[in-house]
Amino acid sequence: MAETTTNQATMNRWWRLRRRPTGALATSDLELATDPIAPLQDGQALVRTLVLSVEAASRIWLGHQRAFMPSVPVGGMVRGIGVGEVIASRRADLHVGDVVAGFLGWQEFCVADDRLLDAPLTTLPSPLPAPASAFVGVLGHIGISAYLGVDYLDPGPGQTVVISAAAGGVGSIAGQLAKLRGARVVGIAGGPAKCRYVVDELGFDACVDHRDPAWRDLLDAAITDGVDLDFENVGGPIMDHLLMRLNVGAKIFLCGEVSQYDDSGERTAWRGLVNVDQIHMQRATMRGFIVTDHLDRWPEAIDALAALWTAGRLMYRESVVTGLEHAPAALARLLAGDTVGKLVVAVAEPQLSRGVQLVITGSR
Ligand SMILES: NC(=O)c1ccc[n+]([C@@H]2O[C@H](COP(=O)([O-])OP(=O)(O)OC[C@H]3O[C@@H](n4cnc5c(N)ncnc54)[C@H](OP(=O)(O)O)[C@@H]3O)[C@@H](O)[C@H]2O)c1
Fold it and tell me: Looking at ligand 1, which residue's alpha carbon is closest to its atom 18?
């Protein structure tokens, strides 16, 4: 197949795992490498990364936990999900100017070869109906996780839903979807400013600051009728406390346990959930979830989320860091709770896909 090229890119900058982090991620655990881009072979396309999603799960992939995807090997590229534009192609299914989403990796240019990538790339609609970052956020795996989780929990009037990491990407959307179904929604977030955001802007009924030393009492005061549904994003001591407040027949959607990802001192000190018996006593159900197991439901979820978002019924905010070189610091900030909404790294402005806006400006 003849190569189509409109780009002179010859060098690629990418983030390499220098050593496995122990405890909180140190930016020195990663190093920025520069390598020449090899000529494309048949079946390959070259994709310029436009925007990268900063994932809590990256900390799992950099560690050695038993997880849903293999650990990144030491010396290997940091795994990452992003949106990019095709700048050269020797693939029949990808054309120069296409905008694609998927596991591009933490790098400026991705050789898109489905035999080498973690999963096939998805070609996004043209013209792109929303900023590129939306497809790793509200209209991507983040919004879809929230949608499918709330669909599973199936909240309704008279029920109390608790949502941890409520000011973050998944939690902020999940809470609003649960509110739209008429439930009482209680968020948990770090710090008074985030809690104000969750209540005043996202419309949750209450939000508890887990950084307040009295968080257990504050949480109990916010859930006096107990917990019917738990959209669980953080695990650890917060989840363990919620187990003691479950109502009979409660459901837990286990989307993540970010408090446990960095095998830090807290995890070492934490001896695991001790109140698991409450799942038995309260006849509760807990479901583990990985969003990529449900690709068949992505179109339905994206349609529903896009309709709500464009109608202004779903508030959504991004924190944006500019420049691939800042990606490790961005990940460290996410894990420390130093960001609001969905965190993305803006890597490059689109050059071929005209009219594509890179990130979402302002919340809507
Ligand atoms: N299962 C799936 O397929 C899937 C897909 C996407 C995401 N997820 C999971 O969904 C969760 C949220 O992901 P996201 O990308 O939207 O991230 P996010 O919520 O935007 O960011 C993570 C947040 O977790 C909170 N956090 C960190 N350490 C904590 C601790 N020790 N205790 C309590 N809260 C802590 C911080 O918020 P505060 O400042 O409020 O503490 C931080 O902002 C994560 O667990 C992630 O792994 C799962």
Answer: 168
Nearest CA to ligand 1 atom 2: 290
Q: Read off the pLDDT of residues 260-273 as tens digits, 9 standing for 90 and up.
A: 888 654 555 566 79
Going by alpha carbons, the residue nearest to atom 29 of ligand 1 is 259
Q: What's the pLDDT tens digit per position in 295-336? A: 999 999 999 999 999 999 999 999 999 999 999 999 999 999
Q: Does the CA dihedral 172-175-179-181 come out positive or negative?
A: positive
Backbone angles phi and psi of 351, in degrees to 5? -115, -30
**H-state helical runs in the chain:** 57-62, 141-153, 169-180, 192-196, 215-222, 236-243, 265-269, 277-281, 298-310, 327-335
Q: Are 39 and 46 in contact (CB under 8 A)?
A: no
Whether the CB-CB separation of 24 and 63 falls below 8 Å is answered with no
pTM of the model: 0.96
Residues having CB closer than 6 A to ligand 1 are 55-57, 141-142, 145, 165, 167-171, 189-190, 194, 210, 233-234, 238, 255-256, 258-259, 289-291, 334-335, 337, 339, 343
Atom of ligand 1 nearest to the CA of 166: 40
Give per-residue pLDDT as tens, 166-202.
999 999 999 999 999 999 999 999 999 999 999 999 9
Nearest to 110 by CA among 47, 44, 152, 190: 47
